[in-house]
Amino acid sequence: MRKALFTLLILCTAVMAMAQEETEFKMIVGDTLVWKPFDDCHMLGYNISGPKVVSFKPLHYGEKIEIIAKQAGNSSIIATCSDNDTKAVASFTVSEPYVAPVVADKPEKPETQAFTASYNFNPPTDHYFITIANEASRFNETYMKLGDNEAYNDGQGVDRFWNLKTGKNWYYRPDAQGWTDDVDWEFEPLGESFFPLNAFASEVNKDNLSQYYVGTEKVLDIDCWHFFVDFEDGTVIQYWVDPANGCTLKRQVNTEAPRVVTVYDLKYTRLYFGPSFKKSLHDTTR
Question: 136 vs 226, which has greater pLDDT?
């Protein structure tokens, strides 16, 4: 009798071992793999633990799944085959990719000069059309203000136009209806200034500008003040500033591609685009 019970216990243990198999995976954030828990199963279900660490989507009617490592941590997925009540477990250890420390290339500082002028920041508050080139991303941002009308375009698909007095708000749809009504007042006014025009004004201590001033250099045919600033964190930022109003027309971090103002119309008086120029529902004229 004892022998029979011992044999039965061994068989039950073997059945349990066969009923739940576990596979371990080590992944890096961004890695993708495909897991097929059973060779032959018609009714499968999946349950995930730690869903923020990995995500999955079924393939081929769910007989296998594609797993994507989302963030560092541990997670597991239990697959259940209802055909024979067996389970398979996949456990995941996800790590961040190794990133070698980047040593920023910094330009050599020119000889400084005595700064004898007076710096004042008086950014344009109306009648302007300004475009800023982001040479790193190769996109241009445009800001426009004419009275109560304001507009913004980020060069990546966001193209908006609004009125500060009426709260009317539009966005541009190049594929269908051109300027299209949006929810009233759901916009952010341009405010007193924007980046990078306000960069030097907000980022640099003005107590002793002679320690940063390295002369003048033209931007948009304007003889700009050129400042070379060493910050405490080791970053070097150069600023090219319009003496007339203190606005930064060019800003460069270390040797990275700069932000540069490429259109600088401060006497913008005639509106030539926007929803007021729309002639019909399907007019896509900008």
Answer: 226
